Amino acid sequence: MSEPTTSEGIFEADALDVEEGQETAAATEQAADAEISYDEQFYPARPKALRPIARRRQYLATRPSFEFDGRNAAYVEWLRNQAMLGDANTLARQLSGQASMWQNSYAHPNPRAAVERAPVWFTAYPLSFITQPGQSFLSALGDEGMWEAFRNIGIRAIHTGPVKLAGGISGWMQTPSVDGHFDRISMGIDPVFGDEDEFRRMCEVAAEHGGTIIDDIVPGHTGKGADFRLAEMNFRDYPGIYHMVDIPEEDWHLLPDVPEGKDSVNLSPDAEQALQKAGYIIGRLQRVIFYEPGVKETNWSATRAIVDTTGKTRRWVYLHYFKAGQPSINWLDPTFAGMRLVVGDALHSLVDLGTGALRLDANGFLGVEKSAEEEPGWSEGHPLSEAANQLIGSMIRKVGGFSFQELNLTIDDIKATSESGPDLSYDFITRPAYHFALVTGDTEFLRLTLRLSKEIGVDQASLVHALQNHDELTYELMHFAAGHRDDVFELGGQEMTGAQIAEHVQQTMRERLTGENAPYNSVFTMNGIACTTVSFIMATLGIQDPDALTPEQEVQVLDAHILLSMYNALQPGVFALSGWDLTGISVLDRGTVGELIAQGDTRWINRGAHDIMGTSPDATASSSGMPRARSLYGPLPEQLDNENSFARRLQRILAVREEHGIATGTLLDVPDVSHRGLLVLVNGLAGGAVEITVLNFSGQDISGSVRSTHLPPGASVRDLFSGETVGQVDDLHSFFIDLPAYQGTALLLEVEEADDDGSPATEA
Known about the structure:
The chain is of the alpha+beta class. The strands form 9 sheets. An 8-stranded parallel beta barrel has the order 1-2-7-15-16-17-18-24, surrounded by 5 helices. Strands 25, 26, 27, 29, 30, 32 and 33 form a 7-stranded antiparallel β-sheet that branches. The longest helix is centred in the C-terminal third of the chain and has 19 residues, at 551-569. The protein is globular. The relative contact order is 0.09.
């Protein structure tokens, strides 16, 4: 057993971080290759080499069987040399004083610049991506053939999903991720997905094809990695990374015992209340995300007793908005350690790995404070979240990138963060509403959300309109269920409060998309429905057995999928879709992912493995072990040989979108419609042109009128897909249109104006 020693004695070397960083920078300058590198070609002001990995490799600790706490100098040194905060410090010192930090505007978000740079995204999910035998995920994403197919279809960016090391550390061993690699513990790439050289090569191939790579950072939490273990040991400023409270030993009776084999235990509501009354914590928060009847996983947990670097035994209580393995980052600690860690992670991805953009995960929960007595702590819509998002977004823009947030809060909050934070926001505003429109064949709720968004001032071009992602079909409807729960709206000819609307939509979705009507889908806690786009459409069409699909039903599924693609693509903003969409994936049988869903996380049924390029037709699972799911559409090479495939039909939609600049347009109007299944979006394009997206969300053929004050009488109406003139705007600012079930189109107004000599001239 090693002798207890003071931190000053063991870790004097840590005080030499500045010198180490300077030596690292000097070494990388000497090692710089004389040839023009990819970085120098595309980013001439970037430092020649930024390698925090060199720091991670400089110390290889032996692994003696000592205590895994502050008494073991070798163990703490091993942790220190792989901690994210240490890498962040190294990167910061290398960037300070560099001209590259002053070459870009950064104060204000620039959504249209981001959309122009990357208008259509493929959202990958590493755990579910089937590669060639022996090929890594990152190598597959850098495949020239796949990028050729993407460019052919119109896809211009890949969002990789989280690929850095995640999970936790227990002793010398790494523990697996508890949330699909969103519980990050290192800036290093997880070997399961590839290595840093493959990541950089992927960025190069993307650039060669006019594309962009989008990475992830997680400003809200980490995993229980080296940083958290050092925080438990009260080492230097590491506790400042987290919302951690040191509980004196005389009050340990307020803490529950930690079960054998566990490193922490979640606090019951009663224990949270007791600690709140004792003045230690703020108590419960506004939302308890993982809370099944009788089993609470989120908010506050207590650590086991652990000896710190001074020999003192401590127990902490720490906050986690999500699972216990995701300790929340403290953005207003005096050390600003959490801020340094997150910004360092962002800079590593942008200036070292070579990405062009970052997704900010869980960035709406960055501020928390005490509320009135007996009330939940203030944790949503907090001004600190806005301030932190401005700092993160500004830093990303400062080095030439752009960012987007996946923020499921009210429309007001999304508007507030869009003014100074990330450049783009995920479209949680209309995503549940367009699903509801297809389920009911009625677009009224969708029109309501679009109009509210426009009235509040959210620019549609600042939103990422997506089909399926790795999460559930979210129907929390925070604008109605929380921020405006008591406001009165009109829906279905009735006056309803926001809370009543939210419950009506949620109950309808649960009944139509799960249970007896669709036993293959599943409810996910209080958030939504675990399903793929295909299994959602099947449920909407009343298909109870996916294995008994008829050819006619397959055509219906494809038509509805294209309709949803049109909705997301034929409006201003980014259009995003996943591999599950491109190949038409259905949900997995629950039995194949039984262990993963045992604790209630049913989202694993919608994350089935898929083979985008058809390189491994015999594979039954991805290299990560995710079971292969059924594909309705097949791999891209086969689809591109079939003019009626999903990929070819999508290609035509994206070509119209690109040719006419719809992505960077402006939503002018969401008019009333003559049939409840119709949706009409009137978009202003560059040069004053007007484009009209018309969609039929019902299972009936529709003949109806399109009317808006933005339609000038006498204008010709041209179908952008067929090129034919299909009507003329009358004196009531309207025209008629016929649309089959689950079909849509894009129309352009063409106005004839007289030339100077009096002869007619056509303007589009």
